[in-house]
Design brief:
Chain lengths: ~240, ~160
């Protein structure tokens, strides 16, 4: 939107009015000054003053007329220039807008293209990233599986070693225990068998003692004594 | 002379205990006869009295008041130095049985004059002998001990 400029005539008139006011003020001061310093020449001065004022008015009027004229000229020129300027401004504005629109449209297209390209690149990047992530995940999975497999393998190996060692130790201990137990059993068995043997013999002797004491006659007993004496003689224990 | 006296006594006296007992009653009897002691005579059993009367008169004539003590001292000394066979038997033997054993010993062994009997029922049967500090067991118990392994083996076979 174009701001409306002030009319040059009014500007000019305003300037002229200001000048007149200034001149009147100057004249008033001069009159005061003159009346103060030269009361005698008051009349002359008044005359001169009037004359000057007259001259001034005349000049002011002439100037005002010139100013009005100039103002009119200026106004006309200004209107023309304004119209021209408006037209040029409109043309330039239209051109500028058109240019801007074209530029914007072009920029927009370029931007769209760039955005599409960037989007495509981003999609490609995302795809690549996804592929890379999949590859990394796959590699990581493979590596993890490999590590886990190795870990399990080592664990199995160590567990197997441990179990074998434990089994060997246990077997050795059990064998020692068994050997000791067997030895104990054997010793116990031997002792018990010896005891049983002793008991058998003792029972047998006791039974024979009980039976033979009753069943053997004195003659039989004597025969056995004679037999023992005969044996002692044979052995030359007694002669 | 002492040997003759001792042989006469040991003719039917085989055990050391009996020999000492018979010597004691013989001495007592002789001292009473020789010295006429006022002390009451020892009460003798029938067997003891029979044994004293079984001795021949010539046997008594060998004793007088001068040698009686010497003879008995010498005989006792002799007895103490004589070898004695110790016989362990499993049964209680009466005089008759001991006599039979003595007769058998006298017949079979020349070196044995005296023996003594000890009872050990653990022997079961037979006897064990101890002579000159050596002990030998000829009893049934010893035979069982000798055959212990065979007996046990047989017994175990029976158990199977």
């Amino acid at each position: 939107m174009i701001r409306q400029l002030p009319n040059p005539i009014f500007i000019f008139l305003a300037i002229a009015a200001v000048v007149v006011i200034l001149l009147l003020l100057r004249r008033y001061h001069l009159r005061k000054k003159i009346s103060r310093y030269n009361e005698g020449n008051l009349e002359d001065a008044q005359k001169k003053g009037y004359e000057i004022l007259y001259q001034s008015i005349k000049k002011a009027q002439a100037t005002l007329a010139n100013a009005e004229l100039e103002g009119i000229k200026l106004l006309a020129g200004s209107k023309l220039a304004t119209n021209k300027l408006d037209s040029e401004y409109s043309t330039r504005l239209s051109e500028s807008i058109k240019f801007s629109q074209d530029t914007l449209s072009q920029e927009l297209n370029e931007t769209k293209k760039a955005v599409a390209l960037a989007e495509q690149q981003f999609i490609n990047f995302l795809n690549e990233l996804g592929t890379s992530a999949k590859n990394i995940q796959s590699n990581s999975q493979t590596l993890t599986n490999q590590r886990i497999s190795e870990l399990f393998e080592r664990f199995e190996t160590r567990l197997s070693d441990f179990l074998i060692k434990t089994e060997q130790t246990s077997t050795h201990s059990i064998e020692l225990e068994l050997r000791s137990t067997r030895q104990l059993i054997e010793t116990y068995k031997t002792q018990q068998m010896a005891l049983i043997d002793e008991n058998i013999i003792a029972m047998m002797e006791q039974t024979l003692n009980l039976v033979l004491t009753k069943k053997l006659s004195i003659k039989d007993q004597l025969d056995l004594v004679y037999e023992a004496l005969e044996k002692a003689k044979i052995e030359k224990f007694i002669v | 002379m002492n040997d003759e006296i001792l042989n006469t006594i040991t003719k039917d006296t085989f055990t050391l205990t009996l020999l000492k007992h018979r010597l004691r009653i013989l001495k007592s009897n002789l001292l009473k006869k020789i010295f006429g002691s006022e002390a009451p005579a020892e009460q003798l059993s029938v067997q003891e009295a029979n044994w004293l009367s079984s001795l021949p008169a010539s046997f008594y004539q060998k004793f007088n008041k001068d040698n009686v003590y010497q003879i008995f001292d010498a005989i006792e000394t002799k007895i103490n130095s004589m070898p004695v066979l110790l016989i362990y038997i499993a049964f209680e033997a009466d005089d008759q049985t001991i006599y039979q054993i003595g007769m058998n010993l006298k017949k079979s062994f020349t070196s044995i004059t005296l023996f003594d009997i000890k009872v050990n029922p653990a022997l079961i049967a037979g006897c064990a002998l101890s002579f000159g500090g050596i002990y030998r067991d000829y009893s049934l118990k010893a035979k069982i001990e000798d055959k212990k392994s065979e007996i046990l083996e047989s017994f175990k076979k029976f158990l199977r």
